[in-house]
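quick q for whoever's on today - can somebody do inverse folding on this one?? i tried earlier but teh output was garbage lol. C-alpha cells:
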C-alpha cells in the first residue's frame, strides 16, 4: 500500500484533521494530482481555517494550475490567518506571492 492510500484510509477516522489533509495534499502533489490536492487542502482548512501553511500551499497550487483569482483569494485568507496566529514568516511569504499575482502583466 502506498503513502497516498495509507493517508486516505485515515481520513474520516480519529486521526483525521488539518495536518493529515495537508500531508495527503503534499503526497498528491508529488503525483502531479493538483485537483485532488486542492480538494484536500480545502478539507484541511475546514478543520482549521487559521492554518497558514495550508493556505500558502493552496495558493501556490492554485497559482500553479493557472487559477490566479482563486490563488489571490487563498493568499489573502492565508495572510489574515497568519496575522491572527502571529506567523510573521508565512505572512511575509504569502504577501510576496500575492504581489506577484496582482502585478499587471
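ok took a stab at it. sequence:
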Amino acid at each position: 500500500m502506498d503513502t497516498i492510500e495509507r493517508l486516505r484510509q485515515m481520513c474520516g477516522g480519529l486521526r483525521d484533521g488539518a495536518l493529515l489533509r495537508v500531508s495527503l495534499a503534499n503526497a498528491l502533489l508529488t503525483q502531479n494530482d493538483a485537483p485532488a490536492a486542492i480538494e484536500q487542502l480545502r478539507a484541511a482548512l475546514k478543520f482549521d481555517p487559521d492554518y497558514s501553511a495550508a493556505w500558502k500551499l493552496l495558493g501556490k497550487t492554485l497559482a500553479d494550475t493557472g487559477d490566479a483569482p482563486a490563488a489571490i483569494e487563498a493568499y489573502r485568507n492565508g495572510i489574515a490567518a497568519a496575522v491572527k496566529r502571529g506567523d510573521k514568516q508565512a505572512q511575509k511569504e504569502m504577501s510576496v506571492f500575492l504581489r506577484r499575482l496582482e502585478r499587471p502583466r
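fwiw The mean pLDDT is 96. also Helices lie at 3-10, 18-30, 34-47, 52-64, 68-85, 88-102. so keep that in mind when u check it
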